[in-house]
Amino acid sequence: MSGTVITVTSGKGGVGKTTTTANLSVALAQLGKRVVAIDADIGLRNLDLVMGLENRIMFDSIDVAEGRCTLNQALVRDQRIGSLYLLPASQARDKADITPAQMALICDRLRESVDFIMIDSPAGIDHGFQTAIAPADRVLIVTTSDVSALRDADTVIGRLERELKRPPGLVINRYNGRLVNNGDMRGIDDVLDILAIDLMGVVPEDELLMLTTDRGTPAVFDSRMNVRRAYINIAKRIMGNNVPLNDYQKPGPFAWLRRIFGRG
């Protein structure tokens, strides 16, 4: 077995990168894959909170890199789905305390026993970003469609194309079809014209998504969540399946009624 390393990154904070990493990790595990999610945001460490595993952490990636524990000791198994693990980051250390070579070595050891390694990169393009992309076979850029997020994403894409010699894939987050139809938000085609990379998926706006983050229960675990299907479809595309993109701009079944009452 030789696992695939996928780094999830963004140009700026607040676009849902960590939530995307958590949900794609769960989705891949639900699809029968053995997955390790790695938090590479040293010093901040939020992936454990989003995944609901913060109370079970004993060691972290820097403990592994500096030899204070084994890799298996640091991995936190998700008891809700046995094929999913987390390698947490340290809250007490700095991004510079783990090198790209050390992260690559950790991933090389994990490749032998898992199908996918999902790395949650810090936002931006500093040392932490370099560490997170060092072992990557593929990179996903998560962005919203607002102008500042797109500018930052374009900068990161240029950096990745220079350093990895291949373009990343794109996940458009918090997409609101109603606002697009009203002309208040950029549509999918507009975003693709700006960024010019392959689209891996679109995650629609869902006001309940913040609640899943606060509760440490990724949305993919909840069959009632509207975004669940979007994450699962992206996971299937990561696995190489051809999955059509949902039409998020299609009006809902009661759109005519909302327009009558001024809520369309």
Q: Output the CATH class name.
A: Alpha Beta
What is the terminal-to-terminal distance?
50 Å
Helix segment tally: 12
Please identify, by name, the CATH architecture.
3-Layer(aba) Sandwich
Proportion of residues in β-strands = 15-25%
How does this model look, in words?
- The protein has 264 residues and is an alpha/beta fold.
- It has one domain: P-loop containing nucleotide triphosphate hydrolases (Rossmann fold), CATH 3.40.50.300.
- Helices cover 38% and strands 16% of the residues.
- It contains twelve helices and eight strands.
- The chain has helices spanning 17-30, 47-51, 61-65, 71-74, 100-111, 127-133, 147-163, 177-181, 188-195, 209-215, 228-238, 255-260, and strands at 4-9, 35-39, 76-77, 84-87, 116-120, 138-143, 169-175, 198-204.
- Strands 3-4-2-5-1-6-7-8 form an eight-stranded mixed sheet, with helices on both faces.
- Helix 5 (100-111) packs parallel to helix 6.
- The radius of gyration is 18 Å and the shape is globular.
Describe the secondary structure blueprint for this structure:
Blueprint: E1 4-9, H1 17-30, E2 35-39, H2 47-51, H3 61-65, H4 71-74, E3 76-77, E4 84-87, H5 100-111, E5 116-120, H6 127-133, E6 138-143, H7 147-163, E7 169-175, H8 177-181, H9 188-195, E8 198-204, H10 209-215, H11 228-238, H12 255-260
Parallel strand pairs: 1-5, 1-6, 2-4, 2-5, 6-7, 7-8
Antiparallel strand pairs: 3-4
Helix pairs in contact: 1-11, 5-6
